[in-house]
Specification:
CATH superfamily: Ribonuclease Z/Hydroxyacylglutathione hydrolase-like
Distance between the termini: 11 Å
Strand content: 15-25%
Number of domains: 1
CATH class: Alpha Beta
Bound molecules: zinc ion
Largest sheet: 7 strands, mixed
CATH architecture: 4-Layer Sandwich
Number of strands: 13
Number of helices: 8
CATH topology: Metallo-beta-lactamase, Chain A
Helix content: 10-25%
Structural class: alpha/beta
Radius of gyration: 18 Å
Shape: globular
């Protein structure tokens, strides 16, 4: 009985080699939810023939939602099913402006963007597959525009953000693994490595960070060279009873991390 999380892409908006940042969460009852759906996510899902029941969107930047139009066409003309779309309530208007407000979604008419999705606006928390997920605001561009996701006792996924020590105090107090935005150069939108080191130095946080959203594989490698742990494709993080690691290759370190985490998460 485990919850798992696996990345489908780990890059930022400028990345050409890491794919759009997105992750798939699988619950013990086999229901699954993606976090974000950027331009590359559609192809990652397709290539691996992944099934999923829902998507949670962290924010409306196109590197996180840009694959939704292609998904709409796929659902509308091929799959003809409906996918749950959990969206922080303040972002609904923005997403409707981007995807839903065209005069007609298809030239022949008769179809709405939202026909293919079950829109579920969320504020502080929502239920999916019998689990309660927490949603919290992060620091990324204008206030109220970006959100993180937490499954208590398992993980925190920050989405794009500057450091958020106050939110990690609130949501990462039970040994959760923390998937965190990172970049190498200090900037106003994301978390530079030195920012992370400074902001989280006093908390039991640094050793639980798994960094993603780098601009390139070279940038990620630079971070790894400094001792940071980073997200990689093919690694499956497991949480819950019988916790362990079922990832691929490179993963002595990750396995160790999962084993360490298993001491804290039940
Ligand atoms: Zn981004
Ligand atoms: Zn962003």
């Amino acid at each position: 009985m485990t919850v798992t999380l696996e990345f489908l892409g780990t890059g930022g908006a400028h990345s050409e080699d890491l794919g759009s940042s997105s992750a798939k969460i699988c619950l013990p009852n086999h229901q699954s939810m993606l976090i974000d759906f950027g331009p590359d996510t559609f192809f990652a899902v397709k290539e691996r023939k992944l099934q999923f029941d829902a998507i949670f969107l962290t924010h409306a930047h196109l590197d996180h939602v840009g694959g939704l139009e292609r998904l709409f066409f796929n659902i509308a003309f091929k799959e003809q099913r409906s996918i749950k779309l959990f969206i922080p309530v303040g972002l609904v208007t923005r997403l409707h402006q981007i995807f839903g407000s065209a005069g007609s979604q298809v030239a022949e008419g008769g179809m709405n963007f939202w026909d293919s999705f079950q829109l579920i606006p969320v504020s502080d928390a929502f239920y999916f597959g019998g689990y309660r997920f927490n949603v919290f605001p992060v620091r990324h561009h204008f206030p109220g525009e970006a959100f993180g996701l937490a499954l208590p006792g398992c993980f925190v996924y920050t989405g794009d953000t500057r450091p958020i020590p106050e939110q990690l105090v609130a949501h990462a107090g039970r040994g959760e693994l923390i998937f965190h935005d990172a970049t190498t150069a200090t900037n106003p939108a994301h978390s530079a490595l030195n920012d992370l080191k400074r902001e989280y130095a006093l908390h039991n946080v640094l050793e639980r960070l798994i960094l993603y959203h780098f601009d390139s594989a070279a940038e990620r490698q630079f971070a790894e060279g400094q001792g940071w742990r980073t997200a990689r494709l093919g690694v499956i993080y497991q949480f819950g009873y019988n916790q362990g690691f079922a990832g691929s290759a490179e993963s002595t370190d990750e396995q160790k991390a999962a084993e360490e985490l298993s001491a804290n998460v039940h």
